[in-house]
Specification:
6 helices; about 240 residues; 7-stranded mixed sheet; two-stranded antiparallel sheet; alpha+beta
Length: about 240
């Protein structure tokens, strides 16, 4: 095990990945400078690389030759990259830049599962490209819930790497490995969270309102939001 790359206590093997996917030391050590030198990187993003990240390590490469799982129409490989954080804040801008750069270099055929290390805790993160047909209007980074490093696991579910990637994204973002219409479910989850927040705000405003006209208007708005929420929750299960 000492011969393979690690990010803190995490390695490809501790994540539950096949030993064939593990990157050997020191091939996986990626300098921060390679991601912002000689590229169009602004001062703010450069500072995030310098101040928010201690190290960047390629932990594993998931391809057909390592796993026997065939490439999909959209995905040839999935890289597992460990990021040791210098701060409490997730390095969202750093991950987005790395993901977009890798995406362009591989002609949109490579994906990245980030493993963000912060002390004894870790979070998985993924970058999902825009999928306008499913309502996802722009690409962005999505973070999973924090877990103890020793409990962090990666499961390769799917008949090809497209399905494996969607399953990893579903597990990270939605807490369920079902890869069906991941982007639609992400959009639905976002709407449900927004509607839930808006309903809570309307309830508090209604409780404080004194004028009967204002109370009635807030009541109607709250009921309309509740109906919208119920419809979205029903649609999410389809």
């Amino acid at each position: 095990m000492s011969g393979i790359e690690s990010c803190g206590p995490v390695t490809a093997l501790t994540l539950g990945l096949p030993s064939t996917t593990a990157v050997m030391h020191p091939r996986g050590r990626l300098t921060k400078e390679r991601f912002y030198t000689n590229t169009k990187v602004g001062k703010r993003l450069r500072q995030h690389f310098i101040e928010d990240i201690d190290s960047i390590t390629m932990l594993a490469v998931i391809r057909e030759q390592e796993t026997g799982i065939p490439a999909g129409p959209l995905t040839n490989e999935i890289n597992v990259i460990g990021l040791e954080q210098s701060t409490e804040h997730p390095p969202l801008e750093v991950m987005e830049h790395i993901a977009r750069t890798r995406d362009e270099l591989t002609r949109h055929r490579s994906r990245i599962l980030f493993v963000c290390m912060n002390g004894s805790m870790t979070k998985f993160a993924v970058f999902r490209n825009a999928n306008v047909a499913e309502g996802l209007t722009e690409g962005s980074v999505h973070m999973g819930e924090p877990v103890e490093c020793e409990s962090a696991r990666v499961r390769l579910n799917g008949t090809d790497l497209d399905a494996v990637w969607d399953s990893l994204c579903a597990e990270t973002i939605l807490g369920a490995s079902d890869p069906t219409r991941v982007d639609r479910r992400i959009v639905s989850r976002t709407r449900i969270m927004r509607l839930t927040k808006e309903i809570d705000q309307l309830e508090r405003r209604h409780a404080k309102a004194v004028q009967i006209g204002q109370r009635n208007r807030l009541w109607d708005e709250r009921q309309a939001k509740r109906r919208e929420l119920e419809q979205e929750q029903q649609g999410e299960t389809l």
